[in-house]
Amino acid sequence: MDKLQYLLKHMEDSISPHCIKEYTVDHGAYSDRSAEVNKQDRLGRKVDDDSCTEYLAQWKDHVFTTFVNELDRLGERKREWNVDGRGAGIPGEILGDFLHHMKLCKRKVDAFVGREDLVAEASQRLYEPNQGTHSHSDKKSLRSISFCIIGKSGSGKTSLMSKLSHEAHKREQESGQNRPIVVRFCGTNSESATGAKLMQSICKQLHFCLGITTNIPKSFDELVQYFHSLLRDHAILLFIDSLDQLR
């Protein structure tokens, strides 16, 4: 593949098909007349080429039209995102908070290597019998806090937690249980900066995953009680990183 073919393929792979327009230009005619054009230019005479002028006019019109249409399309997509996350059924601002933490988690998981024994042992601990004080005969799959990861800064706590959430997701899919898995990295955005914001964010995601329509309390004390009730009444897997970063 020569350079021109490579550039063409790269353009076709990178740009939406509706933004690409083909033009046929008689390159040979321009090449044959190049010496004559240069000579006329040196003599100070203007060279007028109707075919070139027409081609440039068409190209400018296409670029302008495409640019305006793309701006309109982006505006419409932004409106759809704000209203319901472009079909997700939840405002884009709230969905963006969920996706923010999912992206951070994926980035950590993609960079994770080794420590297979540690990951296997910790993953197994997530699914040990309930160690909480509550007894619910109809919710035998309910789990309490399984463990905490403690270590020096930079020792890999965040990466390990991310990896464990990924392993839990795979196990949930394989078992067919598909319980909500919620991951939060405290202090990485405005919705995870304080204890109240963090609980509200988690409650919103649980509402979205479980189809709950109850209003989330605004006062802190009521929010704490409601947050605990969701964790008590619904089996979920909750991973929270850097609690010390909360304000």
Could you please describe the fold and organization of this structure?
- The protein is mainly alpha-helical and 247 residues long.
- The chain has 2 domains: 3-84; 92-245, no CATH class.
- The chain contains 9 helices and 2 strands, in the order αααααααβααβ.
- The protein has helices at 3-14, 27-32, 34-42, 50-84, 92-110, 116-126, 157-175, 195-210, 220-233, and strands at 181-185, 237-241.
- Strands 1-2 form a two-stranded parallel ribbon.
- Helix 8 (195-210) crosses helix 9.
- It starts with a helix and ends in a 6-residue tail after the last strand.
- Residues 133-143 have low confidence and may be disordered.
Uncertain runs: 133-143
Quaternary organisation: single chain
Number of helices: 9
Average pLDDT score: 83
Write the layout of secondary structure elements.
Layout: H1 3-14, H2 27-32, H3 34-42, H4 50-84, H5 92-110, H6 116-126, H7 157-175, E1 181-185, H8 195-210, H9 220-233, E2 237-241
Helix pairs in contact: 5-7, 6-7, 8-9
What's the gist of this structure?
The chain is mostly helical.
Defining traits:
247 residues, mainly alpha, 2 domains, two-stranded parallel ribbon, 9 helices, 57% helix
